[in-house]
Specification:
CATH topology of one domain: Serine Threonine Protein Phosphatase 5, Tetratricopeptide repeat
Shape: globular
Oligomer: single chain
Structural class: mainly alpha
Helix content: 25-40%
Radius of gyration: 24 Å
Strand content: 5-15%
CATH class of one domain: Mainly Alpha
Length: 635
């Protein structure tokens, strides 16, 4: 940690265009040029150039490597052809694997160490050199350096000063939050630490740290505009300001920071019980209410994408370098290496029989069970009919499911190859995901009987060439989108005000009403009355709704941890669906009508988690610096 937060070089800077194309540098710099603080911070243009390096500290977890692992909960499992991705280490209980010292491939987005011994906090335009841990400490120091030099910004308007300060405060809070959610309470570094000062800042309790982050997020929200296009400074990059930190981003993370601090794991770590902290839940609800009031009134431009355009949240085709997200994305980082995802990320979801790579990430059968029925009711599990009256039939497991099931999941019989196939390949046109089918392979296909197509078009295969450069396929999952805000609002209100029909001050929707907004978009039935009698019952549907709406977007691991469920059965299990086709596949029949027999689930693995696995271990070199920066329990 010390080397990250004490290293920062003054460089020559120019405020560059910062729109949706990150192959242009946010920070145009000459590495040989050292300039004085008075020059670097004297006016808005130069100070903004200094500030914009912070955007290059945001890892692109979707495209951090050639193929990418960012789902470490019970949601996803990888084929066995390789084992270097972090999900394999997590599955084995080896949480040391997030660190570059224990991962020779450097395939995870949590850490990076230059193989040549160079700096590990790289702010260049190389997506493969971005590690959250070193860049967060670097970004915190840089933000503090900027804040401590605000008095040198003499040639600027009040608006320009607010824009600079708001961005710096946001990033200081965001980098702390990103570290805290994995490691627990940390020192909250809110000043520049001199290089000759003995580092002795103690670790704080999670909630103490979160309160300091909240102060930064709140101050940033008060300083920043909703839309940079509506500012005098933002006119210089009009129409290309989507990535710039704004009020909506700050409010979103203000609420998320409070909700995480209120959650059972964080409340327990801070000296409370394994329950929600009521007051922090209320603070989260109020922050989300402020944000949603701005979006629903039309003051802010954010709105849910229509379900017909749902995939635009995650990928775009034929739109050159446009980052996905549309109007729903709230916070996302730069997109380095245009079309890098075309040749890497896009190929990690297609079995080798019709794909170009044997490395396949597939949804677990136990996770697919969270996708309920179109009527809004859950299924008990995929192997038996649901006595709750949902209508689920294990002999027709694809019928009348939540529309998001059909959007996200490829199941047996779905047509994959759309174009011409050689005669010998024709049997593989359809997803043969039944037991013994050609798409099922432990090493190079689906291990579970399902495939994940939330982030790729159906044409992503060797024959339709859906990952062809000419398709202009760009994949990028946002850190935060508006649907997540509705779901976090519902959770915060229910646990803060003790009732799923309660609402936060200043906003017109109840907790259950917020869930139903998301279901309405997808065409799913509302939360059933049986889940509205208590907060505990309602939380079952909140957790399931987060599992479905935010599926495979990198939220599940941290959700299970903060709910203190990660080490509990059934969340430690990963299963495969085993079944036979009732009749031969008929291409003229709607695949949803296909019947199966002998549907059952087979346990692939049970993860060996204990209490220590609720937090990641800190680097040994860091915890050896001084006693007050101690290791997490059990590591």
């Amino acid at each position: 940690m010390r080397k990250y937060i004490k290293r920062l070089l003054f460089v020559g800077i120019v405020w560059s265009l910062a729109g949706m194309v990150s192959c242009k540098k946010y920070l145009d710099r000459d590495p040989e040029a050292n300039v004085s603080a008075e020059t670097a911070f004297k006016d808005f243009r130069s100070f903004q150039g200094f500030t914009e390096e912070l955007y290059n500290c945001i890892p692109d977890f979707t495209n951090r490597y050639w193929t990418n692992s960012w789902n470490w909960g019970d949601d996803e499992i990888q084929s066995t052809v390789q084992n270097f991705h972090l999900v394999n280490k997590i599955d084995n209980g080896d949480f040391w694997g997030w660190q570059r010292e224990f991962d020779g491939w450097g395939a995870g987005f949590m850490d990076y160490a230059s193989p040549t011994g160079g700096p590990s906090a790289n702010t260049d335009n190389d997506r493969m050199t971005k590690g959250l841990y070193p860049l967060a400490w670097y970004g915190i120091r840089k933000a503090n350096l900027g804040l401590e030099n605000m008095n040198l910004l003499v040639n600027a308007t009040d608006e320009e000063r607010s824009l600079i300060k708001g961005q710096l405060l946001f990033f200081r809070g965001w980098f702390h939050f990103m570290l805290m959610q994995y490691f627990g309470g940390l020192p909250y570094v809110d000043r520049v630490l001199p290089s000759d000062e003995q580092l002795r800042l103690p670790r704080l309790k999670y909630q103490e740290c979160a309160e300091k982050a909240a102060q930064d997020f709140r101050a940033a929200a008060d300083l920043l505009p909703i839309n940079w296009d509506n500012t005098n400074a933002g006119v210089q990059t009009f129409g290309k300001n989507q990535l710039r930190i704004n009020k909506i981003m700050a409010l979103g993370y203000l609420g998320k920071n409070y909700l995480w601090a209120a959650s059972p794991l964080m409340n327990l770590e801070s000296g409370g019980g394994k329950t929600y902290n009521v007051e922090l839940s209320k603070k989260a609800a109020v922050a989300f209410a402020e944000l949603l009031t701005l979006t629903e009134s039309g003051v802010a431009p954010h709105k849910l994408m229509p379900f017909a355009q749902y995939s635009t949240n995650f990928y775009t085709i034929g739109q050159n370098f446009l980052i996905p997200g549309g109007t729903e994305a709230i916070f996302t980082g730069p997109y380095w290496g245009a079309h890098g995802s075309t040749y890497g990320t896009a190929k990690q979801y297609t079995p080798a029989i019709v794909g170009a790579d044997a490395l396949v990430f597939a949804p677990t059968a136990n996770y697919v069970n969270f996708y309920g029925m179109k009527n809004g009711l859950p299924i008990a599990n995929s192997a038996q009919a649901d006595p709750s009256g949902s209508g689920y039939d294990p002999q027709s497991p694809w019928l009348n499911r939540d529309p998001r099931f059909y959007n996200d999941i490829v199941y047996d019989g779905v047509k994959i190859v759309q174009g011409t196939l050689a005669t010998n390949m024709e049997p593989h046109r359809y997803a043969n995901l039944y037991t013994g089918g050609s798409y099922r392979d432990e090493r190079s296909g689906s291990r579970t009987g399902y495939m994940l197509y939330k982030f790729v078009p159906i044409t992503a295969n060797n024959f339709d060439q859906g990952w062809n450069y000419g398709q202009n396929l760009n994949i990028k999952v946002p850190y935060m989108r508006l649907a997540d805000i509705y779901l976090m609002y519902a959770e915060a209100v229910a646990n803060g005000y003790g009732n799923p029909t309660a609402m936060a001050p200043g906003f017109s929707k109840t907790a259950v009403g917020a869930i139903n907004v998301i279901r309405d978009r997808a065409g799913v039935g509302h939360v059933a009355a049986q889940y509205l009698g208590s907060t505990d019952e309602f939380m079952k549907e909140v957790r399931r709704e987060r599992a479905v709406e935010l599926a495979f977007e990198g939220h599940r691991f941290n959700d299970l941890r903060r709910w203190h469920l990660l080490a509990e059965v059934p969340y430690t299990l990963k299963t495969a669906a085993e079944f036979d086709r009732a009749v031969p596949l008929n291409p003229t029949t709607d695949t949803k009508l296909n019947k199966v027999v002998n549907y059952r689930e087979r346990l692939i693995l049970q993860r060996p988690f204990t209490e220590k696995h609720y937090w990641l271990p800190l680097k040994r070199a860091d915890v050896n610096m001084y006693p007050e920066f101690f290791q997490n329990p059990g590591w």
